[in-house]
Amino acid sequence: MALAAAAATFRPRLAVTASDTTDTRRRHWKAGEFPFPTSSPDAPRRRTSKPAPEEERDSSGSRGGRKHWKAGEFPATTPDGEPSRRRRTPIKNVKKRLDARADAKAWACTVTEALADRIAAKNWQEALQVFEMLKEQPFYHPKEGTFMKLLLLLGRSGQPSRARSLFEEMLSQGCNPTPELYTALIAAYCRNGLLDDAFRLLDDMKASPLCQPDVYTYSTIIKACVDDSRFDMVDALYREMADRGIAPNTVTQNIVLSGYGRAGRLDDMEKVLSAMLESRTSKPDVWTMNIILSLFGNRGQVELMEKWYEKFRGYGIEPETRTLNILIGAYGKKRMYDKMSAVMEYMRKLAFPWTTATFNNVIEAFAESADAKNMEHTFNQMRAEGMKPDTKTFCCLINGFSNAGLFHKVVGMVKLAERLDVPMDTSFHNAVLAACAKADDLMEMERVFRHMKQIQCVPDATTYSVLVEAYRKEGMTDKIYGLQQENPSLVPTDLVHV
Fold first, then answer.
1. CATH classification of 107-213, choosing from 3.40.50.10420, 3.40.50.300, 2.60.120.260, 1.25.40.10?
2. pLDDT tens digit string along 376-397?
3. Could you give the CA distance from residue 323 to residue 307 in angstroms, rounded to a whole number?
4. pTM
């Protein structure tokens, strides 16, 4: 065999030869380390680090199973039959060079990453501080993408004036504006209700040859107009888009469709949907499907909801998790528990995950019917499956236990929400206030209302409605008058004279 032939022709040397002294890899042996046998055959053999027998090494020189070498493949010999030694790759030195190169740029990477981290954390104050520090460095030149992220962050954080200052600073540094940057600033104005400023900026764009508004610019302003129920301006913007040859996309149409649905303008909604079905640039998608199903589901029109669900399926639009959650919520409100369970089983079958919204819809359905047992069972199953309850979960639980007259469990839910660090916003306090009013515990209701104001949780119209109704029930007109003086916009004057 080839292995036997190779073993017969090769033997490890037991004496130092001249070729050994000229090898490129010399080693200075320490005392007692010399790997060759001593001169005396009777002397005890020292432990050496000699290599393993060749037949126990694989092709890479490491220990392993036996290998039958082919002719000319034996790794310990050269074509001339002389032993060869492989030089090891200086991995340690390569690592040192890479580490040194990384250390040379460590400061720059750290600061730029710090800016990205502040933006991701939506911390606009620290983001601006890091940005100012970064601009002072000679190696750094702000790019369009950085200004874009900062403008969007400031707009979402309610800082339109700072967004405007940043935009002007960008222009002063010679950075050319783009339609995307203009749109980001317009979005900052729209998010904060400054529609007049947004329209003035739109006029500036139309006057600039290189920054003409596009479909995203118009979609941003249209959304602000829809949120403010200024549908006359929506129609004017649609006409302006048509004059400029800009076709609305699916996102634009979905925005308007949702606005018409919230305002109850079903005829206008139907026109938009018909236009989408006939269009090539704004075909309906799953968001369109969700908007229509939510509209009819919230109205309790289950048959129309099911009809449109089948229509959208016929158009080739497949449902997503949110779509099925909408169906569950609609069936739950109508107490159609068999269909609600069927949709949940369908989700399991098709591997759609049950989300927090799924459980919230089921809990809300049982809460409205004061079915505390099934509501609590659903909540326990939710926690067992690792779903984290949110503020809506606890609002539904508080309402459900209150409807069932289990006020001691309302207190337990409030304490559990505190332990789980659930955000206690205005809706949470409204649920607690309503439970106190239903239990005729006005002292606790007033204590919760004072605590609400102490933590700067702003009351809304629902808050004052609960308080006024509780005081009206007890004939406490002086208390209602005090609330009206505190917030005249939310407590009408006619409610004081009862």
1. 1.25.40.10
2. 999 999 999 999 999 999 999 9
3. 14
4. 0.69
